[in-house]
Amino acid sequence: MKLVIFDVDGTLVDSQNFIVEAQTRAFAAHGIAAPSREKMLSIVGLSLVQAFEELVPDGPADTLAQAYREAWHVMRLDPSYADALYPGAADAINTLAQRDDMQLGVATGKSLKGVHHLFDEQSWHEHFVTVQTSDHHPSKPHPAMVLKALAETGAAPADALMIGDTSYDMAMGRAAGVRTIGVTWGYHKPEELTASGAERLVDTYEELMAVLASGRCWD
Asked: What's the predicted TM-score (pTM) here?
């Protein structure tokens, strides 16, 4: 049985506008000038506190993270900030969930509440057998989330695959000893993915599905 683990933000969900706006509100609440949009998106994948430590060294990372959470809850009430899946993501997950030889998992810097919100929207609760989030693990690229997913499913590292859009995803997967695929439609550049351990890059969900169907990712 294969285990395919997906990152969420930047891989399944195009959440860049949401993330930038929530960060901007958090910085404004502290009277701190927000970094550039590119910088704010560069830390997607890290846990919130570590992300703010990267954005504002020696800044109030803990309270910035709390302000981000508060902004997140307010923005969830605004339909204009609904989760937008990348083209092909919904069909891919719904198709893969039907395979008898495959289990699906999530390893994300997103909160468990955020993941459940996404699953509610997409009716995905039954599709993923293991869900690992920043609530209960060290931030990526620490391998804890992937190692826990392996333990929960009984999958061997050689039979598991990490799919993500950031260097943190690739480094996490490699540290856990699993295979890695980097997707190029997210927040880190292809060369960053390769340098961090991506064994293969894909440009679309159609290409990803072809790779998974062929079994080439396990070679």
From this structure: 0.90
